[in-house]
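If it is no trouble, can you show me the amino acids of a protein and the tokens describing how it folds?
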Amino acid sequence: MKITAVVCTYNRAALLRLCLSSLARQTLSASLYEVLIINNNCTDDTAAIAEKYARKYSNFRIFFESAQGLSYARNRGWKEARGEYVAYIDDDAKAPGNWIQEIYSFIERHPDVRAFGGPYVAFADTPLPDWFPKGYGSWSLGDEERAIRIGREWLKGTNMVFSRALLEEMGGFNQKLGMRGDKISYGEETRFVLEIDRKGIPVYYAPKIRVEHLLAEYKLSLKWLFKSSFQNGLGYQRIFDQRRSILSHMGGLFLTATRCLKCLFPDRNHFKTRMYDYGAPFFYELGALVDTLSSSRGSKSNRFRVLR
């Protein structure tokens, strides 16, 4: 078995059906790839839908992961994988028919590359508001197949591939990071790629390995966009292992808050678009400050317990 495609899912049965259907229609021979469905404590119709595909397609398998969290589910995926390479795709994404074929072709061209991934394009199940930021929900590093410049560029979790041996060597994803049920949290794939880079292992971008990713209706509000930015900042220290001073955070908050005033001045963009453009960095900085304050309190508590 060459490739294992892993779909980790939590209570998104309707979307899962779309994802699994796309994986069942791949052009690569089913003898060369398998699909693992990792049920992470779903309480909806996920189990029934997964069983339907597993009965119909012999290269589909199902596993139940009781530990709640995307990182736990992703780790269960590579541990159960029979393929030499493990490809991750989100349960709200869909793969074109040549997705796994393109992964296979990349491996054939670059047998020494152990970590790589590709772009994704947003698709929506409802019309986007006029103000919604253009390009939000899509990601690309261009059309060139090349090594990624870690620190300025990253792989994205909805379309990433690693050799199973590398996942085992690194111990998989940090289980303190990432989504937990309905709780928004990010960063486990960024942390993993950062740890790979620190070991001098190159990470590649492959533009032909492309998927579509749902831009869901609940994300089409300023409230959700700001919450997402805040949660990105909230994981800053755990993801990057970098500590910033409170003064540095306050300076960042002051700067981003000052920039927010620009949204009051009319330009060619919608007012809500301007609010997002200037407000998202502020909420990221606010999340990072909260993360630093929480870490500082935790460190003091630990020292106190040790001394006592």
Remarks:
- Residues 299-308 have pLDDT under 50 and may be disordered.
- The longest strand covers residues 3-9.
- The chain has ten helices and eleven strands.
- The first helix runs from residue 13 to 24.
